[in-house]
Structure formats: structure tokens, C-alpha cells
Amino acid sequence: MVRGVWAVLRMVSREGPAALKPNANASRRAPPRRNPPVHAASCWRPRHSEVRPLQSAARMPEITTDHLDEKQVQLLSEMCILIDENDHKIGADTKKNCHLNSNIDKGLLHRAFSIFIFNSEDKLLLQQRSDAKITFPGCFTNTCCSHPLHTDMRRAAQRRLGAELGIPIEQVPPDEMTYLTRIHYKAQSDGVWGEHEIDYILFMQKDVDLKPDPNEIKSHCYVSKEELKEMLNKAKHKELEITPWFRLIADTFLFTWWDNLQTSSSLWITKIYTTCNHTQIRLQSFQILGS
After folding, report:
1. Which of 8, 99, 133, 238 could hold 137 in an S-S bridge, CB 3.0 to 4.6 Å?
2. Is residue 145 among the annotated active site residues?
3. Catalytic-role residue among 164, 195, 197, 216
């Protein structure tokens, strides 16, 4: 399947809302930011651009979902957390509203998470999204991505790991998930649906039992760094499809984070944070165009 995809990515300060209490080994604060760079692309606003706060839900256009998977359509009624560009909560709206490009173009932004699970062999668990998914069907991506229905990000990740991959909740306790940073990205899946999220990145190293829901996941696999690099190369040659957020993370931070899996936690977080800070300016103007 060939689809037009565009995505932009920027780093948000590593500290999250008070509701996501960081692990003890991840409590360092970011150094003060200098004046933000000016973004040249017309589809992206600098961090301090004038954005009108959304005081109420955006008006939902009339969109037919008759041709979509029934179970996935039911999930569109779930409520996502609406935020501004500084990740301040400003309300709530349905998953359907949050993923319509017509609303995204008006600035609708919501909170999300992406979790990466590595096994004891340092291999990363990937999933291929089912063909029933409304955004980016059939695309390979990281272990699990979704939205917190309330404010506890790690428990939301635990819930979705069970719902999508069938992982028993006792195998993925929230206190074993390490929060690394947040990214702000925007991506269009097709002419109707897309993503616009501030995405919390969580890491975990654990051997887990899997029983994926076929309505959510088409396939899954564990990959080494070299195997993932081969997949990324195939994606560039249109031999397989990868979600834009996973492609952006893999092209920027992922392998540096991966190299530090065996480092002591406090040093690992420091190295990761330093790396993110060094790439922050470049990422604010980072753009991928696809056809």
C-alpha cells in the first residue's frame, strides 16, 4: 500500500506532568532552554507560537465509519486527554475527534505513550499493526502505543500491553517502566485520519508471555539492532511499512538508548538525557516527506 505520509518531530522538556511521577533514577531536571529556534516549514509552529487554547471539544465533522472494523470503531468513543503545545491539560475529547485530520489541522493535540520492551537478550519486541486499525494499518512499530484515559501513564501502558499483546499485568508492573522523555510529532495516515500527539517514551527490559489480539496486531517479532536496521532500510525502499513515529524515534534516539540498556540506571538516564538535549534544536526542524 502506498500512502502519502508526512511527519514532524520535536523534543518536549523531559519532565512530565506531576501525574507521571518519574522513577527515582530518572528525576533529573532539564537545563534551561535558550531562545527557541525558528522553524522554516509552514506546517509546524515554534514552541512559543500563539496557539488559541481549546476550551471545548472541536466540532466533529460528519465522517462515515461504515467501512471500518466494528471493534476499532467502538474504540473511537474512548476519551483522550487534550493538551496544549506545552503539554498542559486543557480538556478531553473522543479518540475519533483527536484523530481526524480536519481537527488536527485546527490544532487539536492529545497525550499518548509509546513503550519499548526488550527481552533478556537485548532484543526489541515489535508489533505489526492489524489491517483493521484506523491509522497506519499493517505498519510495523514499537511494542505498544496508545493513550492514557486518565493521567497515570505507566498504568495506561500496562493496560494496553494486556489488551493488545495479552501480556499478564503482573509481568509488566508500572514501577519497572522507565520514563525517558516526551516527543511532539504530527503524522497523516490518509486523507481523513492522522496523529498529533505529545508522546511519552517508556522503556522496560523483561521477558514476557504473549497472546496478541488479532484485531489489534497482525504479527509480532523480536529484533536485534542489526535486524531493525535492515527493516528500516527495507522501509526506505518501500518493501515494508513502518509507523512515522517509530521511524523518527529509530532514526534519532533509539540506538543510543539501546546501547545503554546494560549500563547502570542512573548513568543510563544521564546519557540518554544528554543525547536528547544535544539533538533538540535539530529535531525541532526535522521533517520527513514520503509518497
Report:
1. 133
2. yes
3. 197
Dist. CA 95–CA 271, nearest whole Å: 35
Query: CB–CB of 227/240 below 8 Å?
Result: no
Of residues 145, 164, 195, 276, which has the active-site annotation? Answer: 145
Alpha carbon distance 237, 251 (integer Å): 15
Angle between helix 225-236 and helix 244-252 axes, rounded to 10 deg: 120
Tell me the three cell numbers of residue 286: 526535522
Catalytic residue flag (residue 197): yes
With cell 532514526, the residue in question is 251
Per-residue confidence in pLDDT tens, the chain, 291 aa: 434 344 455 666 556 664 455 444 443 444 444 443 333 232 233 333 333 333 444 444 456 665 666 776 676 788 999 999 999 999 999 999 999 999 999 999 999 999 999 999 999 999 999 999 989 999 999 999 999 987 689 999 999 999 999 999 999 999 999 999 999 999 999 889 999 999 999 999 999 999 999 999 999 999 999 999 999 999 999 999 999 999 989 998 899 999 988 775 555 555 555 555 544 433 333 333 222
Classify each residue of 121-135 as buried b or exposed e, where b means 16 or more C-beta atoms within 10 Å of its C-beta: eebbbbbbbbebbbb
Residue with the three cell numbers 511521577 = 21
